[in-house]
Design a protein that fits this description.
By secondary structure, this protein is mostly beta strands. The protein is built from four helices and 15 strands. The protein has a 15-stranded antiparallel β-sheet that branches. The longest helix is centred in the last third of the chain and has 14 residues. The chain is globular, with a radius of gyration of 19 Å. The N terminus is likely disordered.
Length: 280
């Protein structure tokens, strides 16, 4: 274990604000939308809306260096073709790190596509896409990132759907040095989002609205003094990994609901797949 990892482990043991009872008024700031983003119910719920003029978005007030982030979302109902609801962690700059959920809308009665990706040092191209096993517009469902020095795991309602392991020993870059903000936005992407841009946004259905509640961040908060501290007295996420049950759940999801995997796209990688495809 190197000295920087020891320092992080020490800092994670120091308690800061408890995000278990998060309040949108306190914990996020609206980034754009000119009134289309609204915080309601004394900070317990938030909505983003999109019309032909603009979408909307928000970001966390804190930066995180590792953590377990949960958010309950209810996605745009009805004919949501062309819209994208994004929920992601990201640093800034051309060499940024990023961990993505993006929900690609579709025409009424067709399934949403859940798009995931991981960027390290400005490089992404690690897309996996899934259908969901429920209608994400009828009720709130929990979407989560677990990010620690060993792994990144994506969860839906507590079910792991994807893992990106730390394979630095095999030459695969892993995001572990840049603190990231949590972002979310609702925006128009009808040039690519639905059937590769073939289906355009039907603006007669606007405004489109996505809803948020029960934001929780058990995380290492990066402060202006370049130190970080845990936001919860439960630090099990820092060393958490998938057990055999979790590994079996990922296989079940990927067998039944995965519709795209960069590791099987030979047209995209004619010279051979990225090394993490054979190692993960």
């Amino acid at each position: 274990m190197n000295s920087s990892t020891r320092l992080i482990i020490f800092l994670v043991g120091y308690l800061a604000t408890n995000y278990a009872a998060a309040n949108f008024n306190k914990d996020v700031e609206i980034t754009f939308g000119d009134g289309r983003a609204k915080i309601m119910n004394n900070g317990q719920t938030l909505s983003l809306s999109l019309d032909k003029t603009s979408g909307s978005g928000f970001k966390s007030k804190s930066q995180f260096l590792f953590g377990k982030i949960d958010m309950q979302l209810k996605l745009v109902p009805g004919n949501s073709a062309g819209t994208v609801t994004a929920f992601y962690l990201s640093s800034i700059g051309s060499g940024h790190d990023e961990i993505d959920f993006e929900f690609l809308g579709n025409v009424s009665g067709q399934p949403y596509i859940m798009h995931t990706n991981v960027f390290t040092q400005g490089k992404g191209n690690r897309e996996q896409q899934f259908y969901l096993w429920f209608d994400p517009t009828k009720d709130f469902h929990t979407y989560s990132f677990l990010w620690n020095p060993q792994t990144i795991i994506f969860y839906v309602d507590g079910t792991p759907i994807r893992e990106f392991k730390n394979l630095e020993s095999n030459g695969v870059a892993f995001p572990k040095k840049q603190p990231m903000w949590l972002y979310s936005s609702l925006w128009n992407a009808d040039d690519w989002a639905t059937r590769g841009g073939l289906v355009k946004t039907d603006w007669s259905q606007a405004p489109f609205t996505a809803s948020y509640t029960n934001y929780k961040a058990q995380a290492c908060i990066w402060s202006s003094s370049s130190s970080c501290s845990s936001s919860s007295n439960n630090n099990s996420w820092f060393t958490q990994s998938l057990d055999t049950t979790g590994q079996a759940r990922i296989k079940w999801v990927q067998k039944n609901y995965m519709i795209y995997n960069f590791c099987t796209d030979s047209k995209r990688f004619p010279q051979g797949f990225p090394p993490e495809c054979s190692l993960s």
